């Protein structure tokens, strides 16, 4: 599964190797401490290549036209792929910084759309009565649920093991 993270739309990619990739390009050890605190944002280089390929695919183009009315610019995925490969080969922090900057822009764009959502009212703290007991009808309805039965079985097994 490949997601266009800016727009939160996902498509299935023909490249199956994405599941075999690590979460990040950077292996964290003593030699990588100088790379900065946001270096964990950098994905494996192959993921940027997959995102670019997926973004340019006919299926993605149809989806983009349906959602946005035009196809989107995929060049940033290509630039990130190239900069990531440069970093992989040279280990220069400048190349990594370009990819991190791009990832930060993507993150800001995602957060911008979330903050622009005026359907939900965001809380600054939890409701005051969030720990009040559940209503009786709810407790009775769930008394014989699968979760309730498994919890009782687990408690019985714990009690048997203690004796």
From TrEMBL:
Superkingdom classification of source: Eukaryota
Name of the protein in its database record: Synaptic plasticity regulator PANTS
InterPro entries to which the protein is assigned, alphabetical: Pants/Emi1-like (IPR021475)
Upper lineage: Eukaryota, Metazoa, Ecdysozoa, Arthropoda, Chelicerata
Compartments (UniProt record): Synaptic cleft
Major location category of this protein: other
Family to which this protein belongs: Belongs to the UPF0545 family.
GO cellular component: synaptic cleft
């Amino acid at each position: 599964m490949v997601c266009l993270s800016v727009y939160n739309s996902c498509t299935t990619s023909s490249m199956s190797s994405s599941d075999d990739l690590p979460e990040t390009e950077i292996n964290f050890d003593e030699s990588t401490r100088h790379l900065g605190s946001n270096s964990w944002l950098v994905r494996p280089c192959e993921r940027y290549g997959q995102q670019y390929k997926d973004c340019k695919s006919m299926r993605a183009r149809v989806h983009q036209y349906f959602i946005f009315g035009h196809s989107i610019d995929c060049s940033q995925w290509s630039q990130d792929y190239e900069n990531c490969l440069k970093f992989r080969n040279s280990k220069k922090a400048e190349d990594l910084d370009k990819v991190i900057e791009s990832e930060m822009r993507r993150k800001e764009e995602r957060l911008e759309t979330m903050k622009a959502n005026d359907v939900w009212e965001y809380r600054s703290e939890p409701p005051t009565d969030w720990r009040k007991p559940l209503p009786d009808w709810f407790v009775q309805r769930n008394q014989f649920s699968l979760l309730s039965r498994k919890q009782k079985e687990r408690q019985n097994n714990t009690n048997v093991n203690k004796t």
